[in-house]
Amino acid sequence: MVKFEQLFESASKVLKSLSDNKKNPLHVGEVMACWTYLAFVNNIITYEEIGLNTTTEPGIKSLFQDAMEVATSHKKELTELMHQEGVSLPSSPESKPKADPSAIPVGTKFTEDELVNTININFVAAADMCAAAASQSLRTDVGLMFLKFQSEKLALGFKAKDLMQKKGWLKTPPYYLPPGTPHPKR
C-alpha cells in the first residue's frame, strides 16, 4: 500500500518541474503565513514537551514523539527559509525540562483523553493553516513546503484518530438522521 507521504512526494516532484519561481521575493501574504505558522509551531512544541512529560501511555508517548519530530522539522525548515529571505522570526517559548510523569500530582496534569484530543485539534488547525498558506502562495517552493507540512500533519491526525478510536477517546458528534429516516437499531 502506498503511503500518504509518498503520494505527496511524487506530486511535489511533478509540480516542481512545471514551475520554479523561487527567484521572486516573498509577498506579504507568504511572509505572514510563514511567520504565523512558525509562531504556532513554536507554541505547539511546548505543548508536546508537556505531553511527553506527563504521560506514561505508550500510544500517546509515541504520537507525541512523532508530533515533536514533525514540528521540529517544520520549525527548522521555516526558520531557514525566513533567515534566507530576511524575515524576522516570532518569539519562541523556552523548552520545558524533562520531568517524571509520576512526580506530577494527578489534579495538575492533563488526562490521556485530554492530551490526545488537544493534540488532534492541533493537527486539524495546522492542516487548515497550511492549506490556506499553500493556496495563497505564489512561489512554488513556499506552496510546496506548506503542502508537505499539511500532509505530515494529516498523517499524524490519522494516527491520532486510530489511537483515539482504539482507546475510546474519540469525541463523536451525534449522528444526523433526517426526519422520516428509519432509526438504525443498536
Could you characterize the architecture of this molecule?
- 66% of the residues lie in helices and 0% in strands.
- With 186 residues, the protein is an all-alpha fold.
- The protein has a single domain (4-9, 24-167), classed as Ferritin, core subunit, four-helix bundle (Ferritin, Up-down Bundle), CATH 1.20.1260.
- The longest helix is centred in the middle third of the chain and has 28 residues, at 58-85.
- The chain is globular, with a radius of gyration of 19 Å.
- The protein starts with a helix and ends in a 19-residue tail after the last helix.
- The model has no long low-confidence stretch (mean pLDDT 90).
Describe the structure concisely.
The protein is an all-alpha fold. The protein has one domain (4-9, 24-167): Ferritin (Up-down Bundle).
Mean of residue pLDDT values: 90
Q: Label the CATH architecture.
A: Up-down Bundle
Portion of residues within helices: 55-70%
Summarize the helix and strand pattern as letters: HHHHH
The fraction of residues in strands falls at under 5%
The largest sheet is:
none
State Rg. 19 Å
Q: What is the level 1 CATH name?
A: Mainly Alpha
Q: Remind me, CATH topology?
A: Ferritin
Secondary structure tally: strands: 0
Helix/strand/pairing class, anyone?
mainly alpha
Tally of discrete structural domains? 1
Instruction: Report how far apart the termini are.
Output: 33 Å
Any idea what the shape is?
globular
Q: What low-confidence regions span 5 or more consecutive residues with pLDDT below 50?
A: none
For the record, what is the CATH homologous superfamily label? Answer: Ferritin, core subunit, four-helix bundle
Protein name: DUF3231 family protein
InterPro entries: DUF3231 (IPR021617), Ferritin-like (IPR012347)
Organism: Lentibacillus salinarum
